[in-house]
Write the structure tokens for this entry.
Amino acid sequence: MADILTPALGESVSEATIAKWTKKVGDAVKKDEVLVELETDKVSLEVVAPADGTLAAINAGEGDTVVPGTVLGQVSEGGAAAASAPAAEAPAAAAAPAAAAGGASVDVAVPTMGESVAEGSVGNWLKKSGDTVAKDELLVEIETDKVAVEVSAPEAGVLTINVESGAAVTPGQVIATISASGAAAAAAPKAAAAPAPAAAPAASGAHLSPSVQRVVSENNLNPSSIAASGPKGNITKADAIAAIGAASAAPAPAAPSAPRELAPREERVKMTRLRQTIARRLKESQNTAAQLTTFNEVDMTNVMALRAQYKEQFEKAHGVKLGFMSFFTKAVVAALKEIPAINAEIDGTDIIYKNHYDIGIAVGTDKGLVVPVLRNAEDLSLAGIEKGIANLGKAARDGTLKMDDMQGGTFTITNGGTYGSLMSTPILNAPQSGILGMHNIVQRPMAVNGEVKIRPMMYLALSYDHRIVDGKEAVTFLVRIKQLLEDPQRALLDL
């Protein structure tokens, strides 16, 4: 018997939550096959099978909190897969359709979806079961929270679809088969998915993981009265937390009704995984940080004049256009050096100050907003910054960004001015403590040395985490950026 252990979770990460088991008790597994996915507040991790055999036990269910070294389950080595798992845990899967007589069958599997991407969703199939397909013909796209991956037919033949649109899949999973013979394979019966049974009260002897036991003990809950939804009737941490609310709340309302019917001029479209991730992370940021926004305005006259004077020479010399983002990035780095709290993050009861300046640049794409990171911006020239931003923007729009390109930023800049925004209050990109919002440049009358003059003005917005950044620091940060942009020579002289 081989134990499935929680791996080390990374620097400053002490616990993780079980997001999903990819196998059930009784399933045959292969060594290094992904069995369970863990989520931390920074990354997602995959735990693989330690040996070939059968998944003999699951000790921690989905939603449980675990620490490094926790035994998640066991694999019985070398044994054949159980003929059938307990009915409560392993509902029988529909049998894959057999290939037509005399013809071989080829699997259509989910390809690797990129580094650190463990799951995707099946998009709309371009063919139906029973259709004839040509080799390399596009069949379906797999959507992840970062990119879309195309799946083509490995051979010519007749298609039989095993996984319907919208289902979650993992790399290597077989989603269809192709009969290499000319005859159409018998269509697999489309068994309607049985509704998940309502969670039943857990037996008094149900296994409680340490995190669940802690919630039960601290809140004087009776385990036998908690509705259990985990494997083998175990209580998950989510079940225990839900029971706390049920114990103190009024009688539970009726079960939520089915999704409302659409009006004649409405349509329902499932959110993409990227959009779901954006929504989740932004709401988590709002719920966690004490967010506050402060504003200032900057006169862009001198920066615009400098850019107009040298933009042609700059492009000839460096092969990239001179934009405003490089000036803002330089100003941000200088201001962060003076106000280090805005370049820090909270970790529990500690503050981690960053002595490097990796600036996230928000990029809008057809599929949603992503924030790739410009590394070591303090070491880059204006040309280096412009080239870096151009490369990241192209990768974002092409869908070729890697997970590493979007992790580890210390501060973020977002430019709503490209779309005409006059003013906004940007949401923090957790766990960062600050984000600068740039806006549209508007010609406005301003008082200059006692005279009214028309100036190109831009509003700046700094959203910050008030838990570690004081108002004085936030205002000083914005004033410093204003000074550096209104008098660009200051940056050259390090003043």
Notes: The radius of gyration is 28 Å. Residues 331 and 484 are 6 Å apart (CA to CA). Confidence is low (pLDDT under 50) at residues 80-102, 182-200.
